[in-house]
Request: fold
Amino acid sequence: DSKEPKIKKTMPEKGFAGGDFDISFTEENPKSLNLTYGNIDTGFRSENVDLDVDCSDNGKGDWQCQVNENLDDFDGQFISYYFTLWDMGGHTIDSKEKTLKVDTENPVIENVTYVVKGSSATLSVQVDEENIDFVNYINNDDPSPKDKKLCTKLVGGICKGNLKLNPGSNTINLQVSDKAGNSVGEIVEIIA
Reply:
């Protein structure tokens, strides 16, 4: 094994961490992979990534791995993380160290109100979440239900948007996600 391993990408790349860490790398003969994460205040942890369980390859040395770590005791803090990869030929490579804020709490939908006007409704979703990414919805009663964006920011803690309704009952599936990947859903019945 004369070729050195190559790390192509690690995730999360920037912003927030919720516990999911991904890496893609090129190496025909990986021996081991390690994830190191933490900070000076709470401490650093090092976890072995199981190449057989947490990873898959395309048979040509291109690997994708995903691990989930419990970051509850880092919630609200900044952490740094990096991966270390060893191959059978004794080569070692570290990924670029990244620093992210930890957010392990799911958003909270506090209230949902709506006003129906004919075949549409103005939906107001009050959300408790500092790091909102989006509020999406699916009208399950559409002939071809599709995931649609209601908003990507909160104004005074409220996401407000318009949606089309079908005559009769409409089952609206709301999904609120934050930038760390935490999410919560709620179903709302609206009659048009």
In short: The chain has a mean pLDDT of 95. The chain has no helices and 17 strands.
